[in-house]
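We modelled the chain as a single entity of 331 amino acids. Its sequence is:
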Amino acid sequence: MSKIRAAITGVSGYVPDYVLSNLELEKIVDTTDDWIYSRTGIKERHILKENGKGASDLGTQAVLNLLKKTNTKPEEIDFLVCATVTPDMQFPATANIICDKTGIKNAFSFDINAGCSGFLYALVTASKFVETGKYKKVIVLGAEKMSSIVDYEDRATCIIFGDGAGAVMLEPTTENFGILDEILRVDGSGRQYLYQKAGGSLCPATHETIDNREHYIHQEGQQVFKAAVSQMADVSVEILNRNKLSADDISWLVPHQANMRIIEATANRMKLPKEKVMINIEKYGNTTAATLPLCLWEWEKQLKKGDNIILTAFGAGFTWGSVYLKWGYNS
């Protein structure tokens, strides 16, 4: 019996209309367009400004777009998993809310929180369900309203993050396409360098936590940068070596869009030219769990069936990983 693999058969994305440029940020905090761009590669980011809207609204648009593109009825979906660090609320899961808003009734769903590596973790998790042969249509998405936890008085973090969502459809195949290998890693000691202090069971919300601005992102940039450069590059080279692949064999690298220098360092370690690297950080910033599917969405028309693609990410936790897949269709 042929091995069943999980192949991506469709991809979609969604970003809110409002664009927050570096020039606008110059009016909010002590920074400049040149300073931001030279250190991050970011020129602008999209922000969800509407009141009463959360990550589920971004995810809902991405999922509705995906269902339409793939000519799939909501009731055909078996499973939906949402990667997010900005859930609408502690519970129920944002994935559950998205299912309700999109009419997905015959599925189960849950959230995954693995920081910026969330989409990778969710993709691998979902692929295992597909590989059993029982689940035929599975949606994996990253949806983030990062602006909800960004302190716009902190110039070290407010320049980095944006809002958005991206989704892919996974379906079974017995051809040699789909997700072929993965490496996922964690080092929990890195949690001290990138976290949101208050709002969980350890430090519930109080007037004091709000006054102390503890519900925003805390990041020690240098420590995170050093770890990300090392781990993203190492794991990407490891997955190449494990699958006996060279730079010539790779069609595209899809790196997490955290910082241009991290992206360049990873590509250099893999000996990949810039033309083979998906980069959209300039206009979206870091959308955390949404960066990888947003890249696939933007580059979809350039992807060909059989393309060898490496996805890699690094995030809070610390979490990191790499996935090797063969693209499953021609646009």
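As a brief sanity check on the tokenised model: Residues 221-242 form the longest helix (22 residues). The chain has a mean pLDDT of 97.
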